[in-house]
Amino acid sequence: MAKQAAIPQQVVEDACEWAIMHGVAFRQADNTARHCPFSIAPMTMERPVYEHLLKVVPLITKLVSEVSEDPAFLQSSLSAMAKADPFFALLMSLHLQAHGSEEHRIEPAREPLLLMRTDFMDDRYHGAKVIEFNGIAAGMGPFGQRATEFHRYLKSQWPATYQEWAEEVSAQPAENHGLEQLAFAIATSAKKIQADFNQEGKPTFLMVVQNNEDNVYDQHLLEVELQRLGLRTVRRTFEQLSKQLSSGDNKRLMLENVGTIDVVYLRAGYQYQDYCAPELNETVCCETLSKTRLFIEQHHVAVNATIGQQLATSKTMQMLLTMLPAQEYARWGLTLEEAKLVKSVLAEMKPVSEENIEWFHAHADKQQWVLKNQGEGGGHCVFGEDISAQLNKLEPEEYDAWALMQRLYPHERERATVAVRDSQQTVVDNLMSEVGLFTAYFNGEPVTQFNGYAGYLIRSKPASENEGGIHSGKGILDSLTLAD
């Protein structure tokens, strides 16, 4: 339960001003900014749990990277899901056009840059388990690093307040270089592409964005860091790109009034509306703007996320990889030991079928499951008793768009803490946290200074809330300390 808090108003004002000053904010419709909701003190995790995740997360990324470059497997294993989900049908169509059929393989010219966030919850009984893979628009790495810096500032500037609300005062902050490492990975791949063309000057980074979105400061923090590393950065929507992209010599990607492009980073493209342009009056919805994505992949440019990466990080692929025996991972270059490490953090998942629906109604403990569709972001999960009602509504042809997953019940924070949202403070005594770990691989190889690991994002929420997104739910930005 939440109740009104009583930390000094001066601390709240200083904290909110720090957040705004350091770009930890969302843009409002009138072009003002409001601070991102945050916890006044960090969560604590047992160090061995964290170290296990650091060991396993690059292996997950290695696996997903290889799966994403296995077009025959993607096409065969996701075809049923694509028939049940119109958006993924679009992606699968683009993927087939990019790669050809199994008999007519085409090698796209793009080079895959996998910037991935793997989200975990540390379950009370089962340990840390994966919630989902995020391979497209896997943002908020900059906010993650800023949250760590923010709690360091509070500990220094307002030590009494920090100590009163920290979960464990003696725990040590986990290092977090999410902003710097993601930028390092992008800059490294940009310089590699530029070198392939023996070109001099600043490499150019293109961020594909949504029109009039509010989560822009996290994006701009990354751009500023890239500029510091010597890159030029530009932002465009798919609609703008549909008119402004062209081909240069040797499959060089060109942008009107800018020149050559070395890296394309999609912060859009995970939902139908990102490809919709009503004024085009298309006979086939979203064809023009989605073809822009296909056009990009036909050029020699580093891309995140490739269409294959988006398919490989879908909920259905997560389910398929969870259900596969560990030995099968050898297909994608993992040793049995590596495969077992990956399997150790995958929560049980089941396909939606007539048989499993009957089982769920008759025998399942409904509180131990969550029903998910393929959507990204908040609002795509069904919990508890509501699952039965949703399953009853589904037509058989819709089954493959959904999956049942073991519900995770993470440790609630042992001490209450203060959440600050819209400059208002609230004590929350049942806070639980979601841990997102960032990784970066380029052409199948780790491309950070930490063997592919690139920092973390902590989002906390009251245990009574189902939607924990900072942007789209009841979540608050948080950071991590480690207890020995």
TrEMBL record:
PANTHER family, per the entry: GLUTATHIONE SYNTHETASE (PTHR11130:SF0)
Family: Belongs to the eukaryotic GSH synthase family.
A cellular-component GO term for this protein: cytosol
Name by which UniProt lists this protein: glutathione synthase
Record carries keyword Magnesium: yes
Domain Glutathione synthase substrate-binding, chain residue ranges per copy: 204-312
SUPFAM superfamilies for this protein: Glutathione synthetase ATP-binding domain-like, PreATP-grasp domain
InterPro entries noted in UniProt: Glutathione_synthase, Glutathione_synthase_a-hlx, Glutathione_synthase_C_euk, Glutathione_synthase_N_euk, GSH-S_sub-bd_sf, GSH_synth_subst-bd, PreATP-grasp_dom_sf
Organism for this UniProt entry: Vibrio sinensis
Residues in the signal sequence: none
